[in-house]
Amino acid sequence: MTAVHQFVPALLPRDATGEHTLALRDALRDAGWASDIYVEAAHDDLWPEARYFEEYAGRARPGDVLLYQVATGSPVAEFLLGRPEPLVLYYHNITPASFYETWEPSTASKVGEARAQLAALVPRAALCMAASAYSAAELEGLGCARPAVAPVLVDPARFAPEPDPAEAARLAEGHGPGAVVLFVGRLSPNKAQHRLVETLWWLRRAHDPDARLRLVGPAVTPAYAEAVLAFAGELGLAEAVEHGEDLTPAQLAAWYADADVFVCQSEHEGFCIPLLEAMHFGVPIVATPAGAVPETLGDGGLLVGSDRPADVAAVVSRVAADPVLAGALAGAGTARLRTFAPPVVRRRHVELLAGVVTGPKVAA
Amino acid sequence: MPAASHDASPLDEPSTTARPVGTSPEGDRPSGAGGVPGATADDGDDEGRAAYLAQVMAEIDAEVARRRASGDLPAGLERQLDELFLEFSPMSARGTDRLREQLAVVDAGAFVDIAVPVASNKAVGSVAKRLIRSAISWYVGFIVHQVVKFGWSVSRLFHLVVDEVEELSTQVAALGVPELPEGLAATVSSGTSWWADEAVAALSGVTGRVLVADCGDGSLVRRLVEAGVDAYGIDPSEGALEGALAEGLDVREGSVLDHLGVVGAEGLAGIVLDGTVQWLRSHDRLRLADLVADRLAVGGALVLHSAAPEGWERSVGPVVADLAPGRPVHAETWEHLLASRHVVVRALRRSAPPARLERLPADQPGAAVVNAAVDALEAMQPAAGDYVVVAAREQ
Questions:
Q1: Distance CA A236, CA B100 (A)
Q2: In this structure, are residues A275 and A265 in contact, taking their beta carbons and an 8 Å threshold?
Q3: Which residues on B lie below 8 Å from A235 (Cβ)?
Q4: In a domain, B363, yes or no
Q5: Secondary structure class of A181 (helix, strand, coil)
Q6: CA nearest to B48 within chain A
Q7: Which domain holds residue B301?
Q8: More exposed terminus of chain A, fewer Cβ within 10 Å: N or C?
């Protein structure tokens, strides 16, 4: 019996890597392979779905293939380096240390170690996969001859069918006459939320004095998150910038529903799932090209060549003020989202893994 | 979000217009709104939608260009915003000030409060928490005592280290080289140089910002902007920038090393290095190579101009040569430094060497006098040559 077991540092709910791992586990089982998830840590609710990674040593079977979801550093990488089974890497991307040097040197050190682990794993891998061509190029730089690209599996369950009514009412009350700009992503230097604050400043100064910015995401780099909000305060925008954390899917749906434009000015993204969320919720997207953003966005939104906040503000103002343009962009997003439909992405992953798996399936 | 909050901005300046781009001052419908193809998701007219979006972007670009030209979107304000945000970075302080700031954070964190909060939303929650706290206080207290002891030991150690670093910094500062006399180093005018066409050709078509380091009078920035490149410049001499600032070019005062230090990884589509970068100290040169390799986007272009080591002293004059912290290096050295950082040289061009004057054979009448004059004239010749390197980041 052939098995493709996944290893992931942490299995967390409402987390791109965690959701991808769970969805892929189901896809692998549907394809006829046995598949379990081995982790270093997991959310309490998800421990029934996983086993501690060191347990695998006692459960290993001939013909197993091990698939490692690489997104951060972990002892799991060291464990896999010592295993004889064929290894497949799926690279979600690791934020470069340079983004954290100014804000959180300890994190810079950790991501540096994570990249060192990746460099050690690549020569050992039978197959290297990446969530984007951008990340695949990094694998090539580490010596992988032909990394394959397969998008992240996005669980449709992450999209709540209906916005939370109470949250929707609260947001509608605070919407005001100006445009509401939304960005979703952890508050971290590579996501460059400070650039969004600058864009809001230009937007209010030159186009729309009542514009507002809403940021959703955990403050994983506290010093940066505090700086972004303090910066907004210094610019007189404290009342115009709202930060939401720990939202339920229904609450998040309400934030998307109340937004006029989704703006992404990240300086580094390995894939950028929130772009897909915005497409799903029909929010027009404006983004600047960095990392994997151009390939994920495709023609599903407006890609602004310049990353200057004044230029981005000009585009945002036009989209927010022009319902025909906004409608066209929302339509473009919906069309683009089909590229990432779960059946399509699942098939891609299974086809790539079939090239490594040699044994018989569980069932025909 | 009251409008008053906007008025409180320290960077605020009156805007000549405040309206959506692409709409008329009277609030007409957006110019691209009529007869839009591809406005819905399912009409299958992807080409029509792409053409429509391209048209919209062209309209917005034209409007932004017009507003920039009118001074409505001053580049100086963008710069001020960037600099203001950096002040909120915990590492924004420099040198030992930064160390002292972090030391204060360590000191504050070394204290562990044993009084765990007992507040609760539930009626009996607070009582239960208080009981638990009392019951395990002997245990927690024992652990906390050791943690605090360790914390203060580490803090004390850091204080000693910082004291030592400050002492070393003072000693190192005394060994520093003096600043170059203001105005003695010639203002760079790269836009009129022999290699300017090469630089413009190498950078035309790149997508993203292009930095011109030591931009001097801004002439190369202007040429790049005219070629459609999103270029900006920095120069350590504020005086050299006056003309460029008056023209409305996006230029600012600063050193290339400091500036690249705050640019994000892969944040630049192109970099032009000229001027003082050619006489950096050796360790600063290596740091510059590291920064260029990190800040340049994959596929981004680097244009580096430098005097050749031979004859450099004659080109800059004795005072600058004596006070300069370093000397120019050969093109091959840059090629080596860059290649080891995955920035590969695509082209290398050298300026034509200065024409040599012919000497009279020694047996000719008056040869000694004429040849002495030739020697004197050659000593007055300009630099023995310079070179330009065009490179690209490969990974």
A1: 30
A2: no
A3: 9-11, 81, 84
A4: no
A5: strand
A6: A328
A7: 190-352+369-393
A8: C
Which of B127, B145, B172 lies at the terminal end of a domain, its last residue?
A: B172
Spell out the domains of chain A, with CATH numbers in brackets: 4-149 (3.40.50.2000), 157-340 (3.40.50.2000)
What does chain B come to in residues? 395
Per-residue pLDDT tens, chain A, 364 aa: give them: 689 999 999 998 878 899 999 999 999 999 999 999 999 999 888 999 999 999 999 999 999 999 999 999 999 999 999 999 999 999 999 999 889 888 887 888 888 889 999 999 999 999 999 999 999 999 999 999 889 999 999 876 667 778 999 999 999 999 999 999 999 999 999 999 999 999 999 999 999 999 999 999 999 889 899 999 999 999 999 999 999 988 988 999 999 999 999 999 999 999 999 999 999 999 999 999 999 999 999 999 999 988 889 999 999 999 999 999 999 999 999 999 999 999 999 999 999 999 888 755 554 3
Query: What is the tally of helices (H) and strands (E) in chain B?
Result: 14, 7
Concatenated DSSP letters for B220-283? Answer: HHHHHHHTT-EEEEEES-TGGGHHHHHHT--EEE--HHHHHHHSPTT-EEEEEE-GGGGG--HH
Q: Kindly report the number of other CB atoms within 10 A of residue A291's CB atom.
A: 23
User: CB distance B264–A201 less than 8 Å?
Assistant: no
Assigned domain for B138 exists:
yes
Are B250 and B221 contacting, i.e. CB atoms less than 8 angstroms apart? Answer: yes
Pairwise CB contact (< 8 Å): B23 & A334:
no
Q: How many domains does chain B have?
A: 3
Tell me whether residue B375 is in a domain.
yes
Q: Are residues B247 and B342 in the same domain?
A: yes
CA-CA distance, A274 to A14, in Å (whole number)? 12
Q: Are residues B331 and B260 in the same domain?
A: yes
Residues B255, B331 within the same domain: yes
| Number of CB pairs, chain A paired with chain B, less than 8 A apart | 198
A318 to B20: CB separation less than 8 angstroms, yes or no: yes
